[in-house]
Amino acid sequence: KSMKQPLLATSTDGVGTKTEIARALGKYDTIGEDLVAMVVDDLVVCGAEPLFMTDYIAVGKVIPENIADIVAGIARGCAKANTALIGGETAEHPGLLGDDEFDIAGAATGVVDAEHQLGSHRVKAGDIIIAMPSSGFHANGYSLVRHIIKGAGIDLQANVNEFGKSAGELFLTPTQIYALDCLALIKAMPEHLHAFSHITGGGIAENTARVIPEHLTATYDRSTWSLPIEMEFTARMGGVPQADMERTWNCGIGMSAFVDPSVVDLTLRSLADRGMKAWVAGVVS
Questions:
Q1: What is the C-alpha separation between 68 and 28, in angstroms, rounded?
Q2: Per-residue model confidence as pLDDT tens digits over 151-167
Q3: d(Cα 241, Cα 168) in Å, to the nearest integer?
Q4: Which of the chain's ends, N or C, has fewer CB atoms near its CB within 10 Å?
Q5: Interior CA angle at 209 toward 78 and 258, to 5°?
């Protein structure tokens, strides 16, 4: 009732072949967070507040404790996004999937006031790009990750000295959920926040291009951040060229905000107050 012209928005997604890492390790309690992140963070880029979500879990055989772990992860992710998990479906596919094989998908619905809808129509020359750090690979590029694991003979159970954890734990780090951080920025500066870009499959360039008008260019300054150590390690183990990394992984940025220059400090302070170490990463021209 507080909105002049409420618009419903919806998003659906999965987590790709990251599920295979979870299956190989027999660890199912984090993959649900990835699912929520991929769905609600796609939804919030238009300015919509995620309201509710449903999930779909396909398995070769219902193993109750595994299903419970997956759903617990989804519920935890929904709590982080202040989104209600209102239902879902679990389907058993014997003969199609192995007993321990599974796939998950989800859909969420949100709402945004038409006059506050974000996107390329609001982006203008001079806008500053504020980058929010990723928590790792998130849930994209795992076909490449798995290819490297196989080719380099990486033992998922073995400890990696650079990280103080096993390779499996590294690759299963849950996707950062940005929804509430983005909504806080929308509330703090509704007129000066112009767009968000959720950096998923296709990397920084492809996802940023979706919110940049055809007559403008977004330029990121590579010197403002470093490639995450886990991506550096994985790329080194697989001999992956930089161009391939940038087309496949987020390379350290999970979400970009495009704001008016007058609110750069406010944006950084607002995110810092929420524990998000964002930085100025580029400009639109």
A1: 9
A2: 999 899 888 877 888 88
A3: 23
A4: N
A5: 65
